[in-house]
Every structure is written in C-alpha cells, then in structure tokens.
Specification:
The chain is built from nine helices and no strands. The chain is an all-alpha fold. The chain has one domain: Orthogonal Bundle (Hypothetical protein af1432), CATH 1.10.3210.
Length: 188
C-alpha cells in the first residue's frame, strides 16, 4: 500500500490550495480516529480521507469524475477508489457508501468543514476549546456555514447508527489531535 508521503505528493500534483489541504488533513484526522475506534487500519482510512478530494481543485464542476483515474494511475486499488467516490453519493456520485469506512467518510467530510467554521468564529479561533453544544447552537442557524450540507451529515450519522452529538464529539476530538496542522489551533 502507498505511504503518506507518496499520498501527499500525489495530492500536491493536482492541488496547491492551502485551504483544500487543511480540509484534506482534517478529513484524514477524522478517518484515522474513527478507524482506530473500530479496530480498522488508521493508515489506510487516513489515506482515503487525505485523497478524497483529489480532483476537486482541477475539476470543481466535475468533482469525482476524474478522481478514479487519478488514483488508479497512481496505483490505488479499486476498493480505495470506490471509497473516495462514495463520499459524493447523491451529490456528484452514484456510488453509495456501503462499507463502514465509506459511511464514515460520507459523514465526516462536510462535518469537518462545519466544525472548522465553528472554531474560526470563536474568540480563540481554536478547536481545542470547542464543545459539542457550541457546534449544535450554530447548527440551527441556517445562514451560518450555509454551504455545508447538514442533511448529508445527519444521513451519515444515521448510516453509522450514531447520534449526531456523538459524531460531532468524535470529530472534534480528532481535529484537536491535528489542530496545528489543520489550522485550528488558534490562539490556544
């Protein structure tokens, strides 16, 4: 299997946007945490998270239409590619999340962005002091982070058999572990 440095090099081959990199690292961190909690391979799940938006910068209007070819050319196996393609289910992909890893990716992709937005508006600008109740308060404000599809996150939590609060809490904890790398350390 590929290593993280090779995956980062591949990501950089197609992307150079810092905010997209922070998002990729955020999803990687969440995937690693959920894999560890489920007794799965955090390195493998993490790479899926890291590379899930591989084609987004170069093909934003055709997201996930090019990811498979990019990943296949780099030697990633079909199950890896399928997992990546499943995170856009119902949005820009017909690949339904079936495996646990796919369901986690589907659930945490949008959620990491929402949590980052919640952290950015805090006085600390940090995820380190962010609590679930603060995220839930912002959740109800439709105009806040309006681009985040809350339905996808709720659907993902349901697929995983998790309460939304539990999904949010685990994702916050994952992001705390990578706060500096993902730009969410803030002033703390």
């Amino acid at each position: 299997m590929h290593d993280r440095q090779a995956a980062l090099a591949l990501w950089r081959r197609y992307n150079d946007d810092d905010s997209l990199l922070r998002h990729a690292l955020s999803v990687e961190a969440a995937m690693r945490r959920f894999a560890s909690a489920r007794g799965e391979d955090p390195d493998y799940w993490g790479l899926v998270g890291l590379l899930h938006d591989i084609d987004y910068q170069s093909h934003p209007d055709e997201h996930l239409k090019h990811a498979g070819a990019m990943l296949a050319e780099a030697g990633y196996p079909a199950p890896f590619i399928r997992a990546v393609e499943s995170h856009g289910w119902g949005l820009c992909s017909d690949v339904e999340p079936v495996l646990e890893m796919e369901k986690v990716l589907y659930a945490v992709d949008e959620l990491t962005g929402f949590i980052a937005a919640c952290a950015y508006v805090r006085p600390s600008r940090s995820v380190l002091d962010l609590e679930v109740k603060s995220v839930k308060k912002k959740w109800k404000t439709v105009a806040f982070a309006a681009g985040v599809n809350r339905d996808v996150i709720e659907k993902g939590a349901a697929m995983l058999g998790l309460e939304l609060d539990s999904l949010i809490e685990e994702t916050i904890v994952a992001l705390r572990g990578s706060a500096e790398a993902v730009g969410l350390k803030g002033a703390l």
